[in-house]
TrEMBL record:
<dbReference type="InterPro" id="IPR016024">
    <property type="entry name" value="ARM-type_fold"/>
</dbReference>
<dbReference type="InterPro" id="IPR011989">
    <property type="entry name" value="ARM-like"/>
</dbReference>
<keyword id="KW-0605">Phycobilisome</keyword>
<protein>
    <submittedName>
        <fullName>HEAT repeat domain-containing protein</fullName>
    </submittedName>
</protein>
<comment type="similarity">
    <text>Belongs to the CpcE/RpcE/PecE family.</text>
</comment>
<keyword id="KW-0042">Antenna complex</keyword>
<keyword id="KW-0456">Lyase</keyword>
<dbReference type="Pfam" id="PF13646">
    <property type="entry name" value="HEAT_2"/>
</dbReference>
<dbReference type="InterPro" id="IPR004155">
    <property type="entry name" value="PBS_lyase_HEAT"/>
</dbReference>
Amino acid sequence: MNNIGQLLAQAKAANHAGDWSSLINYLQQLILVCKDEADRECLLELALSALEMGDFQQRWDIAKVLISLGNITINPLIEILQDEDAEDELRWFAARILGEFPHPDVINPLVGFLQTNQDEELKAIAASSLGQMGTVAIPQLTELLKDEQTRLLAVRSLAYIRSKETITPLLTVVQDSQVAVRTAALEALSSFHDERVAPVLLQALDDLAAPVRRAAIVGLSYRLELCTELDLIAKIKPHLYDFNIEVCCATAVALARMGDDAAQHLFTVLVSPHTPITLQLEIIRALSWLESLIGLEYLQQALNQLTSATLWQEIITLLGRVQKPELKTAAAEIILQMVQAGHPATKINSIKSAIALALGQLSYSQATELLNQMQQDPDEFVRLHAIAALNKLG
């Protein structure tokens, strides 16, 4: 008996014994060497047995074998998908594996499954599989957009397909009555630098639903080439005062992507006594993401104008994380000046620890004297951070 014959015999024995792990191991070896059609049909039968009877991990492993067997796997998987008596997890795997076959025979069963199944997880994996199939599935997914029950899943499926052919069908639902559909459509469209997309995103800035406004802001933040032409900073900045805090935070991030011209707007909101601390923290991060001298200057002003220990500590922490070599000295000097001025933050142990840590991360040798003093601090953690910083300075 040749090696293939021995492995087949061992695989059949493992199947008969219900030893799915061993069966999968044998099949993983056989799939590499079996080319004969009859042998591969046998492998398919054994692999389907492991898929039907194995646990989740075993099903995950055998899925790779079924994919490797090619199109002969399609019909048996469709039968499992359409079997309403089969367990949900098995049907989930069938839908997932079918997505690996960009074959016309796969599309209609997945579409039908989406239309008739009530389980959200099963519908989601079917939608994902359709999206994974690429442009071949676009016509059927476009049809699903016409049905309110399947519209959201169809949009999400189209989002998986990174092709400009999806833009036209997605544009048909950007004003849909369902908030989730509008949001998902905008998120999908935002990945395309197409002239039809920006006007839709701009219009969505005034949508009544916060998730839609947020999606529009995030989408526009990736269109920096249009920043001047469309005056994006002016159009986005009012949402720093949005009624929804998540929209405000997304606006802060978006403005940071647009560079130093947005810094003044961020700072104004940061130091306002009416700004929630959640948004203040996001703006502090946004100013640090500018990675510019202007951003650091505004953080220094914020240190002197804000009164929250939480915000002070966040600023110092982010100053310590400055990466650009040309900005490290400026960041370290802001911290040293704060200490020399006797800023009230320097009386708080957790902030003193943050100061030591930041100066060490910035490798600022002129901080050695201060760090030596901090080694004598009454607080143990301050001393430990000072020692660690000195070690970084060598």
